[in-house]
Amino acid sequence: MVYLRNRILRSVMLFRRNSRVLAALAVGIIVIMVHYREHFPQINITYFKENEWIEEDFADLYTREERQYEREGRVDASQSKGTEKKSSKVKWAPLSTDSSVRTEPPSNKYESTVGETPQADNVSKENSNELPPCNFCIRNFREKDPNYRLDEQKAAELQCRALTCLPPPEYYIPRPKPINGFEYYTMILSPKGVCSDKESRILIVVHTKVTGAGIRSLWRRVTKPFLKAHPQFRILFMVGYTADTAAWKATENEGKQNNDIIGYSFIDSYHNLPLKTAMMLRWCTENCQNLEYLIKIDDDMFFNPKKLLQVLRKFSNQLVIVGRLNFHHEVRRDPSDSIYVPYEQYPYHFWPNFQGGGLYVVSGKAVPKLWAVAPYIPVVNLEDAWVTTLAIATGVERQLTRDFTNRRPERWVDKLKNTICATAEKQVGYLMTGRAKMDIEKIWYECRNASAV
Fold first, then answer.
1. Which of 206, 217, 229, 408 has the most other CB atoms within 10 Å of its CB?
2. 0.85 exceeded by the pTM?
3. What is the DSSP pairing of strand 261-267 with strand 187-189?
4. Can you tell me whether residue 359 is helix, strand or coil?
5. Alpha carbons within 13 A on the beta-carbon side of 389
6. pLDDT digits (tens, 9 = 90+) for 205-225
7. Tens digits of per-residue pLDDT, 312-369?
8. Distances in Å between the alpha carbon of 361 and those of 158, 260, 349?
9. Coiled coil located at which positions (predicted)?
C-alpha cells in the first residue's frame, strides 16, 4: 500500500514538473492541425432526410475536397452557398457527365460503345479515390440495425442506398451496338414441341453442368409426381458445350432420349453462368411466345411446390422478377474469389440490390424484354447481379419475397431431419451444398409436408 502511494506521489510530481512542456506541445499540435486542416481526414455525420442520404461536415468547415466538388458541380449549391461559417450539408450527386473530370485514360473497354453516355465509365480504379467515401451508407446502415443481414424486411424499411458507390442511371441505358458477343453462340441442342403444347405454360429451367447426367436423372425422378399433378409445368435443363467428345455425345443422346435439354455452343464453366442465363432468355423468347412464367433454378436447389404456386398466384399478370433480394453487396476484387469481378468489367464498389441467382421467377412478359437488352448491357461475372441490371434497364420490377430461400447452403444430416424439413416447409427453395446436392432427393422423399404436390 505504501509502495502504491509513493508511486502515485512521484507521478503527480513528475506531471507538475513537465506540465508546461506538455501544454506547449498540445498548443503546437493544435496550431499545426488548424494550419494544415485540409490535409487531415474530415469527420462527418451521415443521416437520412427527405429520401436522401446527407453527409454533414462535423467541423463546420469546408475542406479542400468539398471545395473541389463544388467547383465541379457535384455539391448542391442551394445548400452550400454562404455557409462557410455554418454547418455545410452536402448532398453528393453522381459524377458529372463532363469528360474533363477524368484525370486518367479510361480503363473500361466498353466506353467506345456508350455513345453519348460516357458517365457510366467515369469511375475507374485510378480515379475512384477522388469520390466521397462510398461506405458511409453501409456504415450508417449497420449502426441502425446490426442484424440487418438477418432480416430482409428491416433492410427494405431502412431504404439504404450507397449513392456514390452504385452506377449512375446512364449505366442502365442499352449501348448503341451489341457488346457481349451473344450473336456468336448457336443452339446445338433443343427439345422439340415444348411450348406447342397449350398446357405447358410455365417453364422450370434447371441450370446444370454439361457433365451432370446424374443430377439431371435425379431431378426427373423426384419431380415426376409434381409434373403429373400440374401439367402446366415443364422442366428443362440448360447446359453449355464441352470439348470432351465422349461427354458431349452422351449429353446429346440424353437430350434426344428425354427431350428436355437446351444446349448452346459456349464453354460450360462457372464464369460463363451469365452466358447460360442469356441463352436461356434467348431460347425462351424464340420458342415460347405464350409463356406465363420462367423459373430459373440451380440443380442444387430443392423447390417447395406449394410455396412456388403461391408465389405464381400472387404475381400473376405482372412484369416482375421475384426472388430473395441481396442487399448492399460489395464487389469482390480478390482474383482468387469465385465471384471476383475486375474493375475493367464493373468499376463501382457495390452492386445494386439483386435477386439471388439460385432460384428466381420471371414473368412471361418480362422474358423477351430482358433478352432484348441483354446484348447491349455490359455483362459481368456475377450472373444474378447482371440479371438485375437487365431488370433495371427494362423497368422490370424486382420483388422481395420473405423466406424465399435459405442464405447459406446446407448439408443433409439425418439427426437434423426435423429442422431441415421445417425450414423447407417455410421457403420456396432450399439450397444444398454443391458436394451434397444429390441430397435434395432426401428432402423430396423425407420432408413430405414440404414436397407435397
1. 206
2. no
3. antiparallel
4. strand
5. 28
6. 999 999 999 999 999 999 999
7. 998 887 899 999 888 778 888 899 988 899 988 998 888 888 888 999 999 999 999 9
8. 25, 19, 27
9. none
